[in-house]
């Protein structure tokens, strides 16, 4: 925006207007300039606004329209009657001049864009096997098979193994743990497992424990989930 | 093009899985007696067939199929499983089958994958 001219005195303005009005062939643009000069006042000059407005009323209607157009273009706020200034700033300005509050936006968590586990954070079959073996050995050492208590023992072992593995397993891995406990007798038993998994990210491990009265087989699968 | 489920979440159906498992068991060891020589082959066939049938359903799951075949001799057998997963999308199903000479326990675990 151009530098604002110094405020003109009323007499100078009136003289100028008379000269402009009497000039032959006065066209639109000069009148527009007239309007622009008169309105480029800083907001500090509040006392002068009323006389200015009165002056505008005596001018023919065409000039009045230019005046009002220029008021909106020149960013002059002249009290409550001329609050157009805010429109051109492009912001959210109400007629009272106060900014409207932005609505509270929900927080959206961005995608991590991970398609696989981080290097070094894979499911470790060897470490899981060590933990499993240690758990079974410590809990089943010297335990005798009993039909009443072994069902509870089996459940407890499965939960225990899972809770221990949850602490050490890498993030984004789902765990499936199965424990088979049976009485050691002269029967034959075969436990087999087959799975559909992604070999680059998933793995499994199995451990067998046996003593004089019972045997236990623990199977753990770790599946990566995005 | 293979059909795949997108957008809507598919949860595991234990009933469908147990029907598949029962048919597989019946087809492989139905009406035969326990044999030490053949038990390896039976367990391998049961898990393989079950897995193949489950995969044919075309659902977005990773599967684990466990099978235990034990000779009937009066000894006791207990199985338990514990899983750390999303209970809304993942599931399991266990089928117990027996005949005159052996017990067969098959467990199927289905872990959902993100699509």
Can you count the helices of chain B? 2
CA-atom Rg of chain A in angstroms? 44 Å
How many structural domains does the protein architecture of chain B include? 1
Report the CATH superfamily of chain B.
Tctex-1
Assign a percent range to the helix content of chain A. 25-40%
Q: pLDDT average of chain B, as an integer?
A: 87
Low-confidence stretches of chain B: none
Mind describing the biggest β-sheet of chain A?
3 strands, antiparallel
Specify the biggest β-sheet of chain B.
3 strands, antiparallel
Provide key terms for this protein:
heterodimer, A: 226 residues, alpha+beta, 37% helix, rod-shaped, B: 115 residues, Ribosomal protein S3 C-terminal domain, 2 helices, 33% strand
Helix and strand arrangement:
The complex is a heterodimer of chains A (226) and B (115).
Chain A: H1 10-22, H2 28-39, H3 49-58, H4 61-73, H5 125-140, H6 150-168, E1 173-183, E2 189-196, E3 203-210, E4 214-224
Antiparallel strand pairs in A: 1-4, 3-4
Helix pairs in contact in A: 2-4, 5-6
Chain B: H1 14-29, H2 39-56, E1 61-71, E2 77-84, E3 91-98, E4 102-112
Antiparallel strand pairs in B: 1-4, 3-4
Write a structural description.
The complex is a heterodimer of chains A (about 230) and B (about 120). By secondary structure, chain A is an alpha+beta fold. Chain A contains 6 helices and 4 strands, in the order ααααααββββ. Chain B is α+β, with helices and mostly antiparallel strands. Chain B has a single domain (about 15-110), classed as 2-Layer Sandwich (Ribosomal protein S3 C-terminal domain), CATH 3.30.1140. Chain B contains 2 helices and 4 strands. A 3-stranded antiparallel sheet of chain B has the order 1-4-3, with helices on one face. In chain B, helix 1 (about 15-30) packs antiparallel against helix 2. The chains are: A alpha+beta (about 230), B alpha+beta (about 120).
């Amino acid at each position: 925006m151009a530098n604002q001219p110094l405020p003109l005195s009323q007499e100078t303005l009136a003289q100028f207007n008379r000269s402009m009005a009497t000039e032959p062939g006065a066209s639109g643009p000069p009148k527009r300039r007239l309007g622009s000069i008169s309105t480029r006042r800083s907001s500090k000059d509040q006392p002068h606004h009323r006389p200015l407005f009165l002056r505008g009323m005596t001018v023919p209607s065409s000039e009045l329209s230019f005046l009002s157009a220029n008021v909106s273009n020149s960013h002059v706020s002249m009290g409550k009657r001329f609050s157009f200034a805010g429109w051109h700033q492009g912001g959210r300005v109400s007629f009272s001049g106060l900014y409207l509050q932005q609505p509270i936006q929900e927080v959206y968590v961005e995608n991590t864009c991970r398609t696989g586990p981080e290097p070094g954070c894979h499911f470790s079959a060897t470490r899981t096997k060590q933990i499993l073996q240690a758990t079974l050995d410590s809990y089943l050492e010297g335990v005798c098979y009993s039909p009443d208590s072994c069902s509870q023992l089996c459940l407890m072992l499965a939960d225990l193994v899972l809770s221990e593995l949850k602490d050490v397993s890498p993030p984004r891995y789902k765990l499936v743990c199965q424990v088979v406990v049976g009485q050691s007798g002269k029967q034959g038993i075969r436990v087999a497992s087959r799975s559909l998994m992604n070999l680059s990210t998933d793995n499994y491990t199995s451990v067998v424990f046996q003593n004089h009265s019972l045997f236990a087989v623990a199977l753990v699968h770790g599946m990566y989930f995005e | 093009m293979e059909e795949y489920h997108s957008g809507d979440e598919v949860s595991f159906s234990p009933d469908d899985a147990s029907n598949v498992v029962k048919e597989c068991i019946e087809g492989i060891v139905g009406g035969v007696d326990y044999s030490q020589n053949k038990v390896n082959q039976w367990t391998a066939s049961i898990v393989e067939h079950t897995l193949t049938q489950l995969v044919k359903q075309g659902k977005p799951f990773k599967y684990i199929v466990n099978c235990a075949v034990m000779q009937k001799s009066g000894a006791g057998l207990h199985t338990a499983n514990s899983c750390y997963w999303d209970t809304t999308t993942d599931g399991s199903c266990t089928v117990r089958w027996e005949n005159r000479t052996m017990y067969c326990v098959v467990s199927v675990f289905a872990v959902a994958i993100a699509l």
